[in-house]
């Protein structure tokens, strides 16, 4: 039970720490100054949301997120948000292509080359499926998470960053709502599909509390580090590199490679999710669909990584507030319905 619980922690954290999060751009877009309370609220809401979704998935023994979504929201709204998830996956595809270009740009390689490389590698992997790259991802993402935590802790110690920032000023607390709601969609999509594999409620408690505390702590460490270099962030598409500035080149390159793999695997996950859904509407092979989706995504990548996250992530955060509200209220509504019977 314990081992499976930790297994689900890895899955949940890996789902959350995609390229937007790992790069620091997502953290800075929602948090920043006076956000300590916001991160605490996010941690609490994430643990509750994770528990509700995983508990429903476990009870329904679901193999797909749609039944879970329908249980939370009802069939009518679930079908609407099902299309929303499709749009979200397409957004992630072109944001990740742009993120690849931005990563290479920080290494003094043209943006175009970084974007072209990930496009070629995405096209190459389509016929082979995603199992191979996800196996690599299960190895690389823990390295990214551990590496990120070590970099942030060393940075905080070396730069003497105050661990408690602006304790009395917490005006940005409300940002916890759109930040949590933004991350509810991938959470539902992933853990809504593992219900048949969860064996006990103990696993659920371990998975939800453990992943929530890990993400809350990393978010806080990341945020106070970014506040310390906030005057430099204007010059970086990827805020992580502002923190890495001054570190040995070897560490800079290692984190760049790990971040790029996070970008690549996020792009693959999004692409194959899109292919699986779109092939229901078109009677062509998956390679044709995949290439078509990539070509459709290319024009959007010209907007730039930071601009895409700056515009789209807050928008999705607002759109998904209803989903978050229904998840948080689900135990209350369910209990009220039972009492009427």
From TrEMBL:
The keyword Membrane applies. InterPro entries: YkvI-like (IPR038728). The keyword Nucleotide-binding does not apply. Keywords: Membrane, Transmembrane, Transmembrane helix. Coiled coil: none annotated. The chain crosses the membrane at residues 34-54, 80-99, 111-130, 139-157, 177-195, 204-222, 251-276, 288-309, 315-333. PANTHER family: CONSERVED MEMBRANE PROTEIN, MEMBRANE PROTEIN. This is Uncharacterized membrane protein YkvI.
């Amino acid at each position: 039970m314990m081992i499976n619980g930790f297994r689900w922690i890895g899955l949940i954290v890996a789902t959350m720490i995609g390229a937007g999060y790992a790069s620091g751009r997502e953290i800075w877009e929602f948090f920043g100054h006076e956000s300590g309370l916001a991160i605490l609220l996010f941690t609490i809401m994430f643990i509750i949301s994770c528990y509700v979704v995983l508990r429903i998935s476990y009870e329904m023994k679901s193999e797909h997120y749609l039944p879970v979504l329908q249980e939370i929201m009802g069939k009518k709204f679930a079908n609407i948000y099902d299309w929303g998830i499709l749009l979200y996956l397409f957004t992630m595809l072109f944001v990740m292509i742009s993120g690849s270009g931005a990563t290479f740009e920080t290494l003094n390689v043209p943006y175009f080359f970084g974007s072209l490389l990930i496009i070629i590698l995405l096209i190459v992997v389509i016929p082979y499926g995603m199992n191979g790259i996800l196996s690599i991802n299960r190895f690389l993402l823990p390295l990214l998470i551990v590496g990120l935590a070590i970099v942030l802790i060393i940075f905080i110690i070396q730069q003497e960053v105050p661990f408690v920032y602006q304790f009395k000023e917490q005006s940005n607390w409300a940002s916890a709502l759109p930040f949590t709601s933004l991350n509810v969609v991938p959470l539902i999509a992933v853990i809504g599909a593992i219900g048949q594999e969860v064996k006990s409620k103990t696993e659920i408690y371990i998975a939800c509390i453990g992943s929530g505390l890990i993400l809350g702590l990393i978010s806080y460490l990341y945020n106070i580090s970014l506040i310390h270099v906030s005057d430099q962030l204007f010059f970086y598409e990827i805020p992580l590199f502002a923190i890495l500035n001054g570190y040995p080149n070897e560490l800079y390159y290692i984190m760049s490679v790990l971040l790029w793999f996070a970008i690549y695997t996020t792009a693959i996950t999004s692409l194959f999710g899109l292919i699986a859904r779109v092939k229901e509407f078109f009677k062509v092979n998956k390679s044709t669909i995949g290439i078509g989706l990539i070509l459709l995504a290319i024009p959007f990548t010209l907007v730039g990584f930071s601009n895409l996250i700056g515009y789209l992530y807050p928008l999705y955060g607002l759109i998904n507030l209803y989903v978050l509200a229904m998840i948080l209220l689900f135990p209350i509504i369910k209990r009220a319905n039972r009492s009427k019977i």
